[in-house]
Amino acid sequence: MTTSVAGKDWDLLSSYAGLLSLACISIYAGSYGSLSSRSNRVSGTETEEEEEEEIDRLSSQDAYLFPVIGSAVLFGLYLIVKYFGKEWITWLLQWYFTIAGVGSVGKSLIALSRWTMGQSRWQKFDKVQFLVLKGQRELLSLSLRTPSLLLIPLGSIPSVIYTFGDSATRRSALLTDLLALSFSHNALSLLKLDSFKTGCVLLSGLFLYDIWWVFGTEVMVKVATSLDVPIKLLWPKSLVFSTERGFTTLGLGDIVIPGMFVAMALRYDYHRASQRGQLGHVSRVYFLATLLAYAAGLVTTMTVMHVFRKAQPALLYLSPACIVSFMLTALARGEFKEAWAWTDEVEDKGELKSLARPHTNGKVKNSGEHSLEKDSAADATTTSLPQPDELAGQEPKRRLSKRRA
What we know:
Blueprint: E1 4-5, E2 8-9, H1 10-33, H2 60-84, H3 87-117, H4 119-122, E3 127-134, E4 137-145, H5 148-164, H6 167-170, H7 173-190, H8 196-216, H9 219-226, E5 232-236, E6 247-251, H10 253-275, H11 285-308, H12 315-332, H13 336-341, H14 349-355, E7 359-360, E8 363-364, H15 367-382, H16 388-404
Antiparallel strand pairs: 1-2, 3-4, 5-6, 7-8
Helix pairs in contact: 1-7, 1-10, 1-11, 2-8, 2-9, 3-5, 3-7, 5-7, 7-10, 8-10, 8-12, 10-11, 10-12, 11-12
């Protein structure tokens, strides 16, 4: 049943609105997830929270290779589906996303719980440390608060249902969206651009990539409609969430790629506030400008798709929207040169080493305890008996004093 008033298909319009909301919420959450614990810490304050390992940023060289690697993977999947069928590659990808989904949903649940409780309350839970050592060398280190021991197994439930459920369960929009949103959140939290220049290169390259593979060939549409894996957001074309008319879909690439640019804008806002000593009150002007531009670009995509009744490459509209919004905002504020030259670099390795926690005999110690032990050891050395080399240096003095006597 279709709800239509004055010639408007409200079922379809509600589907567009739902998809737009999911995409914007995903980018909003992922952007804040991309902030490191040090980037939003007020200068001079300390925290007991475990330091997360900073991952290297994507550079301009990586951005140039993105469309090339993406094209190779996409065309390879197309050839497999066309000449070998989609069954076995779908089965393989489903298992891959099942394993990845366990960690992805679990990590998103941990982030949601920490945000809901608040950082100070979260830190009151006991910390469990897992270490894998080979001699004195640390191979693997994992630090978890006690609620995480429950949240990670809980996060495996959607993946298990998606893999072992029947075909109707696997095509559930709720289940697919749950997995896809967790993938999107974690991708935005981990994949970080190093500068606005890199972001513009990436969006420009994938702008051309999307146009070619959607309008120039059947490859993109064929692969997207053949593979039954949770790499897209779904929303039913119905006000009452009926699935009779199918779903409106949006690929994760149309969320993650522009979302990386939006997340970088938020980190730049925090950088500006840090430089001015105003981390208590961050003006998120670049973040809001790019996020609103993303929403406007997605609305434009849906409008064109609705009018022409044909699938559209979303990056055709999203890439220019994000780039132009950043440039206009920077030019209007007279900060373009400064913003263009800014790089979101990982903190100095020497500083990171000083924050690292050395371990002795398998027991982890924080940096304060380590320095205290070093100071104590130094004090003990000054009050201990003289060393042999010191005695050797004193021997001539004793003989000289005897001769004078």
